[in-house]
């Protein structure tokens, strides 16, 4: 039986049982991540500028708006399917913070990406950009730095911290005492690649490696802890675990490939060196295309 609570029905007794692989949710989740998150800056670049004037929202902005609605909905549906009762209040606060952070990021990211059409170069800092450093009065430069802070720091933190927290909360309920049920179907195996590639983009472009690796280690520690209780990850838990594992491999290959890039090294100093894909694009790809056009 279920017992009513302030946050909905709560199971009177939690039992660990295997949950079938949520192919529909994971497929929609991966698809909308690729189309609405990774695809939004691409749509902004390839679609004719005449369709979306620089003083109006771009196609990427509309993608971002859709992402801000669909993603929290899918996360809530994912939590609902957990076989274990999860902390509802923490989930609700995380979703609210997620939507607020993603909305802050929408505005900052919209303006920053529109600056590309004016010659803004993502591989340079705000003050080093030619179109910014000559602004008068100089206080305008600080305004652009504030915009960059909202986009890259505050927006990312309020967006990604609750995002990974919700995934971890969901993962904590993905355990079963039946070893034979802890296997991934073929559909899950096929989704691991696209899912991992998206998380690679999310971690590198969002500059959230510490948050990601902390979540990954917490998941691995939880697996070891649950094994002492005779529990193993079910198919959904394995899907998340393998996706995060492959993501770490992709990040390692990405960093190794750009290890000796002096320009990117200058923008990303310090011990943790993980260049952003769009910084790589403006530095090497777009400049190469401009040279060919010239």
TrEMBL record:
Source superkingdom: Eukaryota
Native source organism of the sequence: Certhia brachydactyla (short-toed tree-creeper)
PANTHER family on file: CEROID-LIPOFUSCINOSIS NEURONAL PROTEIN 6
Pfam family, one: CLN6
Chain segments annotated as transmembrane: 62-79, 91-108, 159-178, 185-202, 208-225, 237-259
Keywords noted in UniProt: Membrane, Transmembrane, Transmembrane helix
Gene designation: Cln6
Protein's name in the database: CLN6 protein
Record carries keyword Protein biosynthesis: no
Any Gene Ontology biological process: lysosome organization
GO cellular component: endoplasmic reticulum; membrane
Alphabetical list of InterPro entries matching this protein: CLN6
Source organism phylogeny: Eukaryota, Metazoa, Chordata, Craniata, Vertebrata
């Amino acid at each position: 039986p279920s017992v009513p609570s302030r946050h909905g029905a709560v199971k009177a007794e939690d039992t660990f049982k295997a949950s079938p692989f949520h192919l529909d949710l994971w497929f929609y989740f991966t698809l909308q991540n690729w189309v609405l998150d990774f695809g939004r800056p691409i749509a902004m670049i390839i679609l004719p500028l005449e369709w979306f004037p620089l003083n109006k929202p771009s196609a990427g902005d509309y993608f971002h708006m859709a992402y801000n609605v669909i993603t929290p909905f899918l996360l809530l549906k994912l939590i609902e399917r957990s076989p274990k009762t999860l902390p509802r209040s923490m989930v609700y606060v995380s979703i609210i913070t997620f939507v607020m952070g993603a909305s802050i990021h929408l505005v900052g990211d919209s303006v920053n990406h529109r600056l590309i059409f004016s010659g803004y170069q993502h591989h340079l800092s705000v003050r080093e950009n030619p179109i910014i450093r000559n602004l008068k009065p100089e206080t305008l430069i600080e305004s652009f730095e504030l915009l960059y802070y909202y986009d890259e720091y505050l927006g990312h933190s309020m967006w990604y911290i609750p995002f990974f927290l919700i995934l971890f909360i969901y993962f904590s309920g993905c355990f079963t005492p039946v070893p034979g049920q802890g296997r991934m179907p073929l559909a899950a195996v096929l989704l691991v690649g696209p899912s991992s590639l998206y998380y690679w983009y999310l971690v590198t472009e969002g500059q959230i490696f510490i948050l990601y690796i902390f979540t990954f280690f917490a998941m691995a520690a939880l697996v070891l802890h649950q094994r002492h209780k005779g529990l193993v990850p079910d198919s959904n838990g394995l899907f998340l675990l393998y996706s995060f594992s492959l993501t770490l491999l992709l990040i390692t290959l990405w960093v190794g490939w750009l290890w000796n890039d002096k320009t990117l090294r200058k923008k990303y100093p310090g011990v943790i060196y993980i260049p952003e894909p769009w910084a790589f694009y403006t530095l090497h790809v777009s400049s190469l295309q401009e040279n060919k056009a010239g």
